[in-house]
Specification:
5-stranded mixed beta sheet, 5 strands, globular
Amino acid sequence: MRFLPRLLLAAALAIATLLGGRLLLEGRTDDLAPRAEGDPSLTLDTFLHVQQLRKKRLRAFCSRSAKVAVLPASHEERARVLSRVRVSTKLNFLYCQVPAIGIEGWQWLLEKLEEKENVTVPVPLPYPQQHNLQTQLNKFNQTMIEAMMGSYTKVLFVRDPFQRLISSYMQGMGSSPSFSSFVQDVLDVGQYNASLESKPLVSLCHPCLIRYDYVIMFGFLRQELGHLLHRAGLPKDIHLPEFTDTQVRWTYKWLSEQLFSELSLKQKKQLSHFYRWDLSAFQFSNSLLSDLLSTPETW
């Protein structure tokens, strides 16, 4: 790298990873030890208000874009569109699983909840159903898919696309000599042929097709998931493990500024255009790419 030695970058991420791993392990107890419940920094009313604002922005985006809004009729196309969507039939949860977005704690939490015999929510489907552990939504037939999309609690996790890109780069360290060359590789491949790690969330999670009930922002998991789970009908005595996205978010803030400075102005503009859907559909107030977002006419 031209301005930032790779060793320094690796060390910074290692510190964040070790800190995150230690805190997450502290939260991994058989009783899902209380960590987030009663967090005074986010009231239920504030949480619901924030959700309304996020979904309003998302609806506005969908109204002016040509994204998939109807479940495809063909099995092959449904399988492609829903390939990243996971479902828990026991907990009536549906969520989009995306690489480099930091939801490992959420996935672990659902697994633990599914294992508890006394944790269930009313089954909304009008016919008997076998409870399975988390699986892909596209494994079900069209009738079941439509029923789940209409009745399950649907959760979308979002993260600043530039931070997702940094995370992807760090996970694949060694494949590119510098972050700038890594970004150029992503840009050269193009949005439609991009890897899962760098592909825009809108292209993976299809929020104009799936009307997500909750949009949860990376950096605020600990504050928001408690309200979400209780609103979804899970027992009040279910406690959350420690989520570490807040600590990681601050580390990535510093990394973002350093790595962003390595990019040329052309790369910055191209990257903003590459993630234009995510930047328009979701509010990333501190994203370094937001100020370079193209006008809607260039979409």
